[in-house]
Specification:
9 helices, Cytochrome p450, alpha+beta, about 50% helix, two-stranded antiparallel ribbon, 8 strands, about 260 residues, single chain, about 10% strand
């Protein structure tokens, strides 16, 4: 993401010669492609030899490989898109959730108890609260379909508008104790009222992130496995902010102690 940010944020000198940012982007893509190529060959071999094993181990890839409407190139492209599209966002959200849990012992204990349940409703609420306080996406953008009046401003049709969820989701106008990490607000039993469009970490409508459910499940399952075996502590008090690198990422390293609880 840093390579992409450095390449696209400035003048397009990379079209003339390979800039430092372009070299970083090119190198990372080559490494990722080599890793993906190796795994895709293994998946293809398993699909041909033992499809029942593939459906048991990797049901998503089985569904992708058995889709007759997709060409082989489509399958490779979609596999890489899912992998690339979820690297930084999923890792960032997971790291920040672990950070918030390490900072909130009572919340962490509730999440650990929830790790023994099937639906993991509280763990999922923790992820939603992380995405409210520290969303990885910068903004949702749309071109206005018609002339629209906002307060005293008339914005003409065709204007590109950006709604920064990172601003509205932390606004006390929309959430009680907006700056506090409080996953309970997302539980149905809590019945807290807030504007449903104030926090849109995955966007909304036809243009929303297609990997939303996959990402939420990946993070929830990983958190469940971690909490079943480890207690989380921060090595030092952290006040983690976020910076833009195409998406939003932590502005500093997050060092967490994993204390084994299974002795």
């Amino acid at each position: 993401m840093e390579g992409m940010y450095e390449t696209f944020i400035g003048p397009p000198f990379w079209k003339i010669f390979k800039t430092a940012g372009y070299k970083k982007l090119e190198s990372s893509h080559q490494i990722i492609y080599r890793i993906m190529e190796k795994h895709l060959k293994n998946v293809t071999r398993m699909h041909c030899q033992s499809p029942e094993k593939l459906i048991a181990r990797q049901p998503f890839m089985y569904t992708l490989f058995t889709n007759e409407q997709l060409t082989d190139d489509d399958k490779v492209m979609l596999s890489m898109e899912i992998f690339l599209g979820g690297i930084d966002t999923t890792a960032t959200t997971t790291a920040l959730t672990l950070c918030y849990l390490a900072q909130n012992e009572l919340v962490q204990e509730k999440a650990r108890k929830d790790a023994t349940t099937k639906d993991m409703s509280y763990i999922r609420a923790c992820v939603k609260e992380t995405l409210r306080l520290s969303p990885t996406a910068g903004a949702n953008s749309r071109f206005l379909a018609r002339d629209t009046k906002f307060d005293d401003y008339l914005i003409p049709k065709g204007t590109l508008l950006l709604a920064f969820s990172s601003v509205t989701s932390c606004d006390k106008k929309y959430f009680k104790n907006a700056q506090s990490y409080y996953p309970d607000r997302w539980l149905r039993a809590n019945n807290e009222e807030f504007h449903k469009f104030a926090s849109l970490p995955f966007g909304y409508g036809p243009r929303m992130c297609p990997g939303k459910r996959l990402a939420e499940n990946e993070i929830a399952i990983l958190l469940k496995k971690i909490l079943q075996s480890y207690k989380l502590e921060l090595e030092a008090d952290l006040n983690v902010g976020m910076v833009y690198r195409m998406n939003r990422i932590p502005d500093r390293p997050i060092n967490i102690k994993f204390i084994n609880t299974n002795y």
